[in-house]
Amino acid sequence: MAEAGPRRAGAEVTGDGEPPGARRLLVVEHGSHAPAGLLADWAATRSLRIQTVALHAGEPLPAAPGFDAVAILGSELTAYDDSLPWLAAELDFIERMLAASVPVLGICFGGQTLARVLGARLYRLAVPEIGWAQVTSEHPGLAEGPWLSWHRDAFDLPAGAAQIAANAVCVQGFSYGPHAGLQFHPEATQPIAASWLRFAVPPPGEEITGPLFRAADGAWDRAAAHASALFSAWLDGGLADG
Fold it and tell me: Does position 139 have pLDDT exceeding 50, yes or no?
């Protein structure tokens, strides 16, 4: 899915018709199969200029904040695997954004790295959670579902954070000041999710893929509407109340 005119972090932002003072959203991407998706669509409606850092392609994270907000996307990799060549830099980057009070949204893997920086335990689930998930929401800006869930790891609630969503599987969301970590995927579209099938081990069965890809019954449209409201609640500070 197109990212509404994304730019690389090292690119010049001015000089192409962008109005002075335009707000900028930095997107940290861990794989070309896991792009911003609905987050990019929403950003366009908010006149946010997206700049993307593709860690998987060796692109460096910026040393200085220089952005109004940061979104850290998902990955099939493990957020506590310190052999990942870019993970230490990502954790350091998140620490800098927190210190600078730049709102951070972590999605799935990104939620796990945010939780890790905040001192929470990350752990492997006994069974991966893949498919449509319903959550118990503790914030009006976060709908209870359907949300796409696709993960094998999870996080504990960080100390000092407010739980904003959970289900029987794990904590599904938290807020920490202007920052938020989510375990589900509000950014994902049906084509994005279909591309993830090749990473699932073991491959999900028809009981999972059917409701996602052949008999969704409007779930993708409902999830997209929920996603827009959730992204706005995060950026506007509405989730900070916990």
Answer: yes
pTM value is 0.89
In a domain, 213, yes or no: yes
Task: Write the DSSP symbol of residue 79.
Answer: T
Q: Which DSSP string corresponds to 3-45?
A: -SS-EETTS--SSSSPPTT--EEEEEES-TTS--THHHHHHHH
The whole domain housing 78 covers 7-241
The answer on pLDDT for 66 being more than 80 is yes
d(CA 108, CA 162): 17
Q: Give the three-class secondary structure for 151.
A: strand
- Look at the chain and report how many structural domains it folds into: 1
Split at pLDDT 50, 70, 90, the class of 206 is confident
Instruction: Give domain status of residue 127, yes or no.
Output: yes
Amino acid identity at 47 = S
Q: Cite the DSSP H helix spans in 29-186.
A: 38-45, 87-99, 109-117
Q: Which amino acid makes up residue 78?
A: T
Q: CATH number, domain at 120?
A: 3.40.50.880
Place of tokens 């498919």: 131
For residue 1, tell me if it sits in a domain: no
